[in-house]
Structure formats: C-alpha cells, structure tokens
Amino acid sequence: MQTTPQTFIDARRIGGFDDPGAYFGKAVASEDATSYRPVISLFAIAALLVVALTWLMLGAVFAGRSVEWFIAIAMVLLDLQKLQDVERFETMFLNCDLLAQRWVRYEFVYPLVETGAGLLMLAGVFTWLSAPAALIIASIGAVSVFKAVYIDKRDLKCACVGGKSKVPLGLVSLTENLMMIGMAIWMLSKL
Fold this sequence. Notes:
Layout: E1 7-9, E2 12-15, H1 19-23, H2 37-58, H3 66-84, H4 86-96, H5 98-102, H6 106-123, H7 127-151, H8 171-189
Antiparallel strand pairs: 1-2
C-alpha cells in the first residue's frame, strides 16, 4: 500500500498504515466488517443512565420504572445515532422499511416520532400520544425488518444505529422494534 507514513523495520520498508499490522500477524479489520460494538455500547450506556436515574430519583439501583426508562432512553439514544447523518440513515432506511418505500418522507418522520415518543415515555407524560405513536412505527418497523431479512433474505446493514452502521439488519433492529411494541402496550395498559 502506498500511503504515508511509511514504516521501516531493520531498514526494510514495511509499508503504510495497514501494513505493520499484517507484518506482525495482526489481521486488519475490513471497513465492511460486521461490528456490534455501537449497539452494545449504546445499550450499556442506556443501562448505566437508568441506574443513575433510578438511584437519583428513588435511591435504589433498580425499581419498577427502570425497564420503562431503559427502553425510553435506548429509543432516544438510537435516534441520536440516526440523526447524526440523516441522509445516510434515510438511504439505509428506505432499503428496508415498507412505509418509507411508499411514502418517502416517512424516512424523515420516523426518527422524530421515535425520539418524541421516547422522551414522552421517559417523562411519563402524554402516554395517550406517545404509546400509540411508538406502537405504530415499531409495528411497521418489525414487519419491514422481518420481511427484508427473513422472507426476502436481503443482506442489509441496520439503520437503527445510524448511517455508518456495520451492524447487519436483523436481530438488533427487530429487537428495537419489539421493545418499543412491548413498551407501548405496557404504557397503554397502565392508562
């Protein structure tokens, strides 16, 4: 590889940026390699935020609302990832979402609705609005992911953690949607 800086070991040119890793027997990760690191990090941060929030609000590490708060915080953090590069997210989302393929503006509406629903659920207000909104978008998302991955057998990257995702579409996105569906049903049952 003819990149800079060049590396020399014992007066022998090894090469550019990736080459020393190969020289020392370390495999260089492909830019397209699957990585669940963003999802694991996001859910771990959401869990830690819930522990801090539960401790601050209730003086405990875990309480009845902890699961609700975890899902709501995860929804908002996932949307933060999506909104970092909206154009790339929209392109990836359009590849799999059934409603976005029919109504293109839905690719812009989806993360805003999910963020709003997550924030309202976290605050525990306007459940009559947030729960049905989350239920609708999550149901469309779950059906779309299931069709794209398990019926059409398409090999797509997940738009759930933003446009630069190396997470394959499937379990993570389906889990995100099923969590939102469960949360919405739970919140509606409490009305």
